[in-house]
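WARN no homologs supplied; continuing
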Amino acid sequence: MTIVAPTAAGSVSTIHDVAASSPGFWNELGGATLKLAALFWLSVLITDSILWGVAGTDPVESAIGKLVLNSFGALLTIVVTALLFRFRRANLLTKAVLAFAFSLIAAPVYGLFDYAVHQWWVWPVMLEFSMTNFGYTLVSSAAMFFGWSCLYVSLIYSFEVRDRERSLAAAREEALAAQMRALRYQVNPHFLFNTLNSIAGLMEEGATARAERMVLSLSTFLRTTLALDPMHDVTLADELTLQEDYLDIETERFSDRMSYAIDAPDDVRRALVPTLILQPLIENAVKHGVGRSSEPIGIRIVARRDAGRLSILVENDVQRGDGVLAPEGFGIGLRNVADRIRTRFGSEGSLMTTMSDGDAFLARVELPWRTA
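OK structure emitted
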């Protein structure tokens, strides 16, 4: 699958093309090309010295000639490299044909220069030009330049693959961030709807003073939650503080039949959790536990560390005899929590809901244990 991004002119370009046009990409490629070329011609120099030494030529005496010849070969390499670079977007077969063609062109130039260096080395003795020796030089130099061409094409390919992987990783991270923000920001309208209903209920009952306190508490709560970055985690202590603020708001409305308790040891409160991950669970407990009951209902939040994992339980009583024998399924809030956990932690996180034998609804969040 090709990921595309719209350009200013309305056309599309691949993320890879955009990233590959950055100065950093070309600087890295240029530096790697120079290092590879230096290693290549150093290997050629060493190989020539060994082979000519075996053939009876003193490698020390012929060192200057080989340096001159290899320096000229390096210059030809630059020309071949520049030509291949111009065709870097061609398909692999085209690159292979071009590499072979450029090697065939560079080989006779290199061979003639080799003959000139040899002639200069033995001057004033005149060398007879041998087509046989020149043919051997053509074959070996063509193979040498073709080998370099293949190396360079492979280098470009490796850089393009690595750059594409970086681009795709960045695109995946950006998509994940967008998804996390979308899931996170769904919490606020859901919470705001429920809280405004609570305030409206108080106003209908004539409890204007309590409604006013709820409005002020709501303002403080929203100011705090909207300032949170959905991609930054908070400590469980901070998350529980926010949820206490929310529970205090709802207690204003259901003061006659709602109570809550939080059980989280100090060492567990240091754990990191996604922002507002408990909000929909507690809203659910208030709506389906307290809101549907005429009896006193308790909400309990219990957090524990268990074998390298953080376990958070949100439990609410259910009125006896209201006909609820099992969870009604995931609503928007619970689905939101499940999606956020799955998106962020994959199989390492989970949300489970069930009814207990003691007429209570249980929602358990399991997360990897992490601390700041």
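Residues 1-21, 324-329 have pLDDT under 50 and may be disordered.
OK
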